[in-house]
Structures are given as C-alpha cells and as structure tokens.
Amino acid sequence: MEGKNDKDFIATLRDHGLQVTYQRLAIYQALYHTKEHPSAEVIYQHVKKRFPMISLGTVYKTLERFYEVGLIEKVSPITEVARYDANLGAHHHLVCLQCHLIQDADTPIIDQKIVPQEKNGFQVLRQQVILQGYCPECRRNIEASRARK
C-alpha cells in the first residue's frame, strides 16, 4: 500500500469486504506510518493511547485479517512473535540475530523472483528474502566483548 492515503485504504478495506472502523484505521495507521516492523503488542500500545477500550485480541484479529486479505505482510524470521509490515512493495529484510531488529534492506539484493519448478505443482502466494546478521550496535558490542577476552 506504499503511497496510499486513508481514502485509498478505506476503499481497499471495502473491496475486501471488510467493515471500515476507526479501530481498523488506527491499527493500520500505526503500522503504515512506521519504518519499524512492530509486533501486535507494540501496535496495541500505540493504538490504546487513542482508543483506551481496544483489546489486544482485537489488534491480533485485525492484523491477522489484514494479512489474510493481503493488506500487510508478516515478518517473523527468528522469533515466535510475528512482526508486521505495511510495505507490500518488493523489498527484503535485514534481521539482527542479537536484538531482533528488523529493517528493510535499502536496495533490492535479489532482483528476480524465486519460482519453484512448475512440475511439482506448488503455487507460490508470498515470498520473502531475509538476511540475518548483526546490526551495527550489536556488532560493536560483540567485537568489544571479544576484545576484552
């Protein structure tokens, strides 16, 4: 939904047969207007400031529904906690193995789609490229720790 505004999102919700509510808009805005890849709990804490009566369950259900209809992506590479991304454009993720920071890779690293051979009958619906390593801060901490030994 990159570059889309609230009116576009409302139309998209309706196109997918989803009722438009202030809570759904707030949940989507909390995700769309961040470069982070937040968990449902982080989104809940953000939305709760505006809608104190919202439940964590509502946030989870809403995010899952958005994912099911293709409005957002899940990024859950190394932990059991799903993280979410509203950027549906082709991009890859860099994931820190130490602090679990997830960020978008600035440039596409792999330009071509990876498509399995058609003879096995597997239909690809989504794909992700996740590069795991250490963010600059964790890398400095690891190197400093090694230097002390």
State the CATH architecture of the largest domain. Orthogonal Bundle
CATH class call of the largest domain: Mainly Alpha
The secondary-structure class comes to alpha+beta
The count of domains is 2
Q: In the CATH scheme, what's the topology name of the largest domain?
A: Arc Repressor Mutant, subunit A
The poorly predicted ranges are none
Helix content class: 25-40%
* CATH homologous superfamily descriptor of the largest domain: Winged helix-like DNA-binding domain superfamily/Winged helix DNA-binding domain
End-to-end CA span: 48 Å
Number of strands: 5
Output mean pLDDT. 83
Largest sheet: 3 strands, mixed
Strand order of the largest sheet: 4-3-5
Tell the overall outline. globular
**Percent of sequence in beta strands:** 5-15%
Tell me the Rg in angstroms: 18 Å
Oligomeric state as shown: single chain
Query: Number of DSSP helices?
Result: 5
Order of helices and strands: HHHHEEEEEH
Q: Could you characterize what this model shows?
A:
This protein is of the alpha+beta class. The protein has 2 domains: 1-89, Arc Repressor Mutant, subunit A (Orthogonal Bundle); 90-149, 2-Layer Sandwich (Dna Ligase, domain 1). Helices cover 39% and strands 11% of the residues. The protein has 5 helices and 5 strands; from the N terminus they run ααααβββββα. Strands 4-3-5 form a 3-stranded mixed beta sheet, with no helix packed on it. A hairpin with a 5-residue loop joins β3 (93-96) and β4 (102-104). The mean pLDDT is 83.
Please describe the topology of this protein.
Layout: H1 6-15, H2 22-32, H3 40-50, H4 56-68, E1 73-75, E2 83-85, E3 93-96, E4 102-104, E5 130-133, H5 136-148
Parallel strand pairs: 3-5
Antiparallel strand pairs: 1-2, 3-4
